Amino acid sequence: MVTPAPHAPTALEEELRRLAGAVPDPELPMVSLAELGVLRGLRVLAPGRVEVELTPTYTGCPAVETMAADIERVLHDRGVPEVEVRTVLAPPWTTDAISAEGRRKLAESGIAPPAPRRAAAGGPVPVELTVRCPHCGSTETTLLSRFSSTACKALRRCETCREPFDHFKEL
Amino acid sequence: MTAALALGDDALVLSHRLGEWAGHAPVLEEEVALANIALDLLGQARVLLSLAGDEDELAYLREERAFRNVQLVEQPNGDFAHTIARQLYFSTYQELLYEELARGDGPFAPLAAKAVKEVAYHRDHAEQWTLRLGDGTEESHQRMRRALDALWRFTGELFEPVEGCEVEWSALHGAWLSRVTAVLTRATLSLPEGPWRGAWAAGAGRQGIHTEPFGPMLAQMQHLHRSHPGAAW
């Protein structure tokens, strides 16, 4: 579980969190870790010692190690010698954690952003019927595969402009 | 921790089997799909095995008899229908199990709550293919039928209680049967007849007794780490 911060974030913690949050996602470099909603917390434990909490999008997401290394690097550059990045699973990340700005940037880069999630337990994974083509804006798109270039995306094709595109699938 | 090994080994071994499809799947989309599912399972395995000890030592340095996975997941890929039947049986079970574990406050709750959403996609993938193959051509129907029959005897073991998992196993079995039956009915198939556990071996994976194909699989999975300890790239 996330350890609650014993105090409101200090000015230094806020600054370091902004720096860590600005690190681009290694696989979707158009969005930052803050926009993706995977940066859970940052605490200064002692002078020169910082703990960062990161949550993976998918349990097996291979980008987590790169994210951690990138965060360590920017904080080292800022003069923090000791950085510990911890991976936390609870509460589970969902696509609802992606910010409005993050969604806009995904769409701009040709990746259809996820729709807000609907509650669906046990039934079929909800099929989003109106995923809009990020290239031409058409709603006439079909699912080619639930699985695409990374764990978090599905592969679709636009029936209007015939371009295939990635869709950040709802989780 | 017995339960962490049992659940972690299920995920690890099935992940490896699915990874064997890389370069061999019938179409590119399917290749990507199976690799994605394998990656999700590997992520789960890493979390679960880390609860029991050092993940690499557990994965690469244990002997066959120390693995606690069910025998279903170690069965060879066979034809595509066998892989799909194995996926249908296993991911339906895993989704129900993780739903249960996510509700509790045990050591597996955080992982189960996260992974159950991934597994829902795996189960849906297996269902879509079961429908397509079962209700497809005569050939695809026959192959799906054969695959479901061949793997049926490994399904009973899924519901053997695992020490450390607070789950109503018989209720889980009931829910599993009704979900699988519903999919097979829609796919113009039916639930296999015959025993759902073999008198001779099935039911023993949790005790470290495995089927013949498991040894060669482990040899392939472990040989690099054993030949080059600590290798990294």
UniProtKB/TrEMBL annotation, chain A:
Transmembrane segments: none annotated. Residues 128-169 form the PaaD zinc beta ribbon domain. It holds the Pfam family FeS_assembly_P. Residues 22-88 form the MIP18 family-like domain. It comes from the Bacteria. InterPro entries: Fe-S_Maturation_MIP18, FSCA_dom_sf, MIP18-like, PaaD-like, Zn_ribbon_PaaD. This is Phenylacetate-CoA oxygenase, PaaJ subunit. The lineage of its organism: Bacteria, Bacillati, Actinomycetota, Actinomycetes, Kitasatosporales.
